[in-house]
Amino acid sequence: AQKITQTQPGMFVQEKEAVTLDCTYDTSDPSYGLFWYKQPSSGEMIFLIYQGSYDQQNATEGRYSLNFQKARKSANLVISASQLGDSAMYFCAMRGRGSQGNLIFGKGTKLSVKP
Amino acid sequence: NAGVTQTPKFRILKIGQSMTLQCAQDMNHNYMYWYRQDPGMGLKLIYYSVGAGITDKGEVPNGYNVSRSTTEDFPLRLELAAPSQTSVYFCASRTWGTGGYTFGSGTRLTVV
After folding, report:
1. What is the per-residue DSSP string for B23-70?
2. Which of residues 75-104 of A touch B (CB under 8 A)?
3. Do residues A77 and A93 lie in contact, with contact meaning Cβ atoms separated by under 8 Å?
4. Secondary structure of residue B85 in the 3-state scheme
5. Cβ pair B88, B108 in contact under 8 A
6. What is the mean pLDDT of residues A22-45?
7. How many CA atoms within 13 Å lie on the side-chain side of A95?
8. A52 neighbourhood in chain B, CB within 8 Å
9. Measured distance CA(B38)–CA(B105) in Å, rounded
10. At B4, is the pLDDT very low, low, confident or very high (cuts 50, 70, 90)?
11. Nearest-by-Cβ selection for B101 from A52, A103, A106
12. Residues 6 or more apart whose Cβ sits within 8 Å of residue B71
């Protein structure tokens, strides 16, 4: 079965420092996509970054990068130069198999940025 | 603005009541999804649709129904509301292939 595991329920980081949020996944499909979303206290889901299973390079979007280690089935999110506005829940997700292509989510990590 | 629009944003239901959560997108996306998010958890798939007239169950469909008569609209119907359906509901859509997902702003439902 396909599964996303986020083992860090909560993380603290000092403002301006970098932080890594862990995500491991389980799938037998050779083709898959991995996503990270941010959910601030206001509740909306904000797309951050995407990594395809065949992408050779790690994805980057501004201060966000995805450390993709295919053999270890991990897709960790790295946030550089943390800002107070980065305090939020972060969800790792994988596009599911089959025609429906729904997202399968982990339980999330709550990141708190300290001034 | 283009995107996914969900209404209402908040709703309180009494046990046994029914209601419809509305979801509309104006991006001509084929795929649409309904998720629920329980406190402290990730999102779980309730129902999905791959196009007008085609719907199917997700991981947690019990107590819900959907329809997709047009490409734009994908309403979620709750019949006989129960406290276990207290949750935040998200609608999402995407286009063909590896297109990204667009989420609505969510509906916070409380059943008392």
Report:
1. EEESS--SEEEEEEE-TTS-EEEEEEEEETTEEEE-S--TTEEE--SS
2. 91, 93, 95, 99-104
3. no
4. helix
5. yes
6. 94
7. 24
8. 98
9. 15
10. very high
11. A103
12. B28, B29, B30, B51, B52
- What's the gap between Cα A14 and its chain centre? 19
CA nearest to A16, candidates A82, A84, A113, A115: A82
Query: CA-nearest residue of chain B to A95?
Result: B98
* DSSP three-state, residue A107: coil
What pLDDT was estimated at residue A13? 97
Contact residues, chain A, for B105 at CB < 8 Å? 43-44
Q: Are the C-beta atoms of B93 and B101 separated by less than 8 Å?
A: yes
Residue B106 to chain A, least CA–CA distance (Å): 7
* Three-state SS at B84: helix
Residue carrying structure tokens 């292509």: A101
pLDDT at A99: 65
Q: Which residue has the tokens 């946030």?
A: A79
Take residue A13 and report the two structure tokens written for it.
Answer: 């980081």
| Under 8 Å between Cβ of A20 and A65 | no
pLDDT tens digit string along B65-95? 999 999 999 999 998 999 999 999 999 999 8
Question: Tokens 């999102």 — which residue?
Answer: B43
Chain B residues whose beta carbon lies within 8 Å of the beta carbon of residue A102: 33, 45, 48, 58
pLDDT at A98 over 80: no
